[in-house]
Amino acid sequence: MDKISTCRAAYLIPFIDVLRDIGASVERELARAKLPTMVEETPEELVSNILSMDFLTRSARLEGVDDLGWLWVQKFSSSSFSAELLTALRSFPTVKARLDCLSNLIALEDSDTRVGLIGFNGSAEVYCDSKSSEIPSDPISEWTQVTVLIEAVRSITGENWSPDEIRFKSDFSVCDAARAANPNTRFLTQSAHTSIILPSSVLAASKLTCAAAQVPEPNTPNKLDGTENLKRLIRPYLLQVAPKIEVLADVMGVSPRSLQRKLKQSGSSYSELIETTRFEMAAEMLRDSDMPLIDIAMMFGYENQSNFGRSFRRVAGISPGKYRREMFGRQRVA
After folding, report:
1. 240, 324: one domain
2. How many Cα atoms occupy the beta-carbon half-sphere of 155 within 13 Å?
3. Same domain for 140 and 269?
4. According to a count of CB atoms within 10 Å of the terminal CB, is the N or C end of the chain lower?
5. Model pLDDT for residues 179-217, shown as the tens digit of each residue
6. Does residue 6 have a pLDDT over 50?
7. CA 261, 265, 266, 270 torsion: positive or negative?
């Protein structure tokens, strides 16, 4: 299965908040971009980078917003990092160690981003670049990239720290609000990297930690097989209506027939992929909530509770009610 350029939905949600604040027709534009309209309900799932950038650039143009990337910065914080990344970062005591950790685990946040460090003349350039030529440099995405780096450094230095320079690969005018918020920072555009510049001494800044300095084995998108990656992409859509195969084919940049062929090669079909993903989401709700069965059935697009039961039994071999009772019994024993 071909690799798909994706990021966690958590990175798209602050943009949606900004657009809602200015009265944009968010749901209409999400649907037009073939993104799940209930993406805010699934921050841990994946969305297509390409479709997301199409949605954001079009929305910014329609609403006349020149600094959407900077407005996103005001809504974002490191608490939006994945739990795996946050846990790993907190186990390291220095800025350098946390940046190295971020470099190792950045695929948890975005499959097409790389983080690295270049040292020169008592300073260090920490870059966060896109690996994909399909996603051109754009101030919207570049603001997210430099902010991820700054948040990693601030996890040690504190929230008032700012880099000496912020560099962007694209050519645009940095807004006055961004300059006012970073009065001691120089902004450069048309640079070789999207990056921040800081004194090398900052790399040694430390914070005491009781956790062992050990990076956990991440369940990164790179290590998931192609079918698992597709299931994470489909999950946000299933809170409404299962997407047609043409939607997922667009996400992958292939024809529907080509996608069907790839799924067949992996031992699956599109209908099986939808059914399995819907089952897994329903099983999570049965395990983690006391929501009535009929409500779970309606949430995931089943026509009625009977159809839900038949579909669930076809995959699990037992009814939804029995599954819930067995899971509850295991939790009580544990």
Report:
1. yes
2. 28
3. no
4. C
5. 999 999 999 999 999 999 999 999 999 875 444 444 444
6. yes
7. positive
- Please identify, among 159, 194, 218, the residue that sits at the C-terminal boundary of a domain: 218
Tokens of 79: 């608490």
Decide which of 218, 249, 276 is a domain's last residue.
218
Q: 272 and 204, same structural domain?
A: no
Residues 118 and 208 in one domain: yes
Residue 164 in domain: yes
The whole-angstrom separation of Cα 67 and Cα 51 is 20
> Does some domain include residue 197?
yes
The verdict on residue 18 lying in a domain is no
Instruction: Identify whether 45 is part of a domain.
Output: no
Domain assignment of residue 214, given as a range: 77-218
CA 328 to each of CA 119, 294, 332: distance values in angstroms, whole numbers, following the listed order: 54, 19, 6
pTM: 0.81
Q: What is the pLDDT of residues 52-81, one digit of tens each?
A: 999 999 999 999 999 999 999 999 999 999
pLDDT of residue 211: 42
Total structural domains within the chain: 2
